[in-house]
Amino acid sequence: MGFTIGNPNAAKEAQIAKAKAAAEAAKQKELGAGGGQQIIKYVPPSECTDRIRVVFDDSGSMSGQIQNAKDGVVEFFRSCVPNQTACAIHFLETTNENLSTMCSNLPAMGVDLQEARLTMGMTPLFETMHKVIQMPLTRMIAFTDGSPTDSLPEIPHGDWYKNADVIIKIAVEKKVPIDTVFFGRGTEDSPEIKLLKYFSDKTGGYFLHFDPAKVSFRQAFKYLAPVNRLMLASESVRKEIESGKRS
Predict the structure, then answer these.
(1) Three-state secondary structure readout of 30-74
(2) 79-103: per-residue pLDDT in tens?
(3) What is the pTM of this model?
């Protein structure tokens, strides 16, 4: 009676194939697709209740924290309810039309953000915010770790508040709150913190201070997602987030 000698590596090969299949399935799920078909059919951004534009500081001073900042924005995306929120990301220096286009497929946008190579230049905060506030949006989130290095036309260079007032006027007319985040070490008397608080106070937004010595961007940025944002109305909650006590 004959018999067949089995492949001694068959079990190992099967395990490898199974692991690869699981990894691919996880990747497709993250991208919002499975088996070549979308798990979620994403609606046009115009149909989303929240259309949020994130102003992302990619200046040179952020170089040591860029990955942390990217992780924070991705966590923000994960905290958003599918098909209720569309987002766009606007860098201060880097040009990326794919990310700066409003999109409701936030998992795919998160992948693109992680892969994006950033210019890491100056801090043209006013110019970027002024451009973004004139676009279709329901809210702006702006974060930076440094001082603006630019000025809007016909405004003296270095007059931060006159620059801010131009942007604030448009935001108030459009009823668009501006949430701001200072990412770095500083005190309430820091000029950068005062400026960002001015933006938020004048437009009905919220200000947060993310000190990397106390809290990671990834842990804290999710609180700016629409489903969590109402928690920021409590000053005590904001303090807990900023101190790292609320993760």
Answers:
(1) HCCEECCEECCCCCCHHHCCEEEEEEECCEHHHCCCHHHHHHHHH
(2) 999 999 999 999 999 999 999 999 9
(3) 0.83
